[in-house]
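Work Package 3 (structural annotation) set out to generate three-dimensional models for the target panel prioritized at the project kickoff. During this period the team completed the workflow that converts sequence records into discrete structure tokens, so that structures can be stored uniformly alongside our sequence database. As a representative example, we reproduce one entry of 378 residues exactly as it appears in the project archive.
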Amino acid sequence: MRENAVALDSVVQPGDIVICHDPQTAGLVPHLVERGIPVIWRCHIGHDQHGVEVDAGWEFLRAYLEHVPLAVFSRASYAPDWMPHRRSMVLPPNIDPFSAKNQPMDEPTVRAILGHVGLIDDPGAGVPMFRRDDGSVGRVDRKADVSRLGRAPSFETPLVVQVSRWDRMKDPIGVLRGFTQLVLAGGSQGAQLVLAGPNVRGVADDPEGPLVLDEVEHAWRALPDALRETVQLAQLPMNDEEENAAIVNALQRHATVVVQKSLREGFGLTVAEAMWKRRPVVASAVGGIRDQIRDGIDGLLVHHPEDLSELASAVGRILADPALARRLADAGFERVREHYLSLTGLERWAELVRMLLEVTEPERVSEHKSAALSASAT
């Protein structure tokens, strides 16, 4: 961090504002503060409850962050006790509606992408294309690594989908067992489950991913054939990040229900992504998911994430009631449009920057205000 801080000296000029993201950058903050550079530290992670490890982590970071002019958290409960409230702000994460993961996608394209990667049996007549961030046209060329018994489902088959890392905190085995419980109770309405995550060979910074996937596959193979036929485990290609995002986009848009059964969650933007695509969501009432979903209005919350019957009941309600599914989906879309888009986030960041300047450079802010009033009067 000391080497990086010195390197920044040639880049950061007087009048600039620097935003440092997450604990990895905390060591830069004292150096920038000493130079008189206005700094915002943005923390994307957090934990609602105190504990030995949480407190030890914050105590380590305290020496670097105690004097930061402004700190931004995803939830108020994530801020440490020693951070003064006047220098602690809440700004939820947001999604980019124009990215490959969230851009509009018509049904023929969804069908073509899912058919090409092997998640449905009928690709239709569309072309598996998407638009990249630079405006160029991309094509989904790679296939998913899918574990299933029998053929892929047809395009008309209802899908219950969870997309997440292969992480025990996302509880993919709990989703598997909750869904099979629903099938055994006769409430699945002919739906199949897709548990999708990154190809474990393509994620270098997730050493537990292969082990968790092995555990999920073991639980799946232990099912009777009749139940195993209702579940697909899909490792999505990671060679091209935007191609992966387009596949996730298509899968979420095609889902009848999107599930996010986290046992713990920082914020859980996969929930906002699914809501943006007008999909009804069933998610655990943990972390930032509780901020995104108002239970029964924008989606259904599972208040006891370890309770498989509660998950099965919530998914079954939506599968059995198309009117409820439409109502939740439409309300979820509006919720994201109002609160969790990057455009809204940009406006909130402008307010934070304005606030920071009022604290660190009041004379400069006053000059800007005078100039703005003069221009307005003119």
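Residues 342-360 form the longest helix (19 residues).
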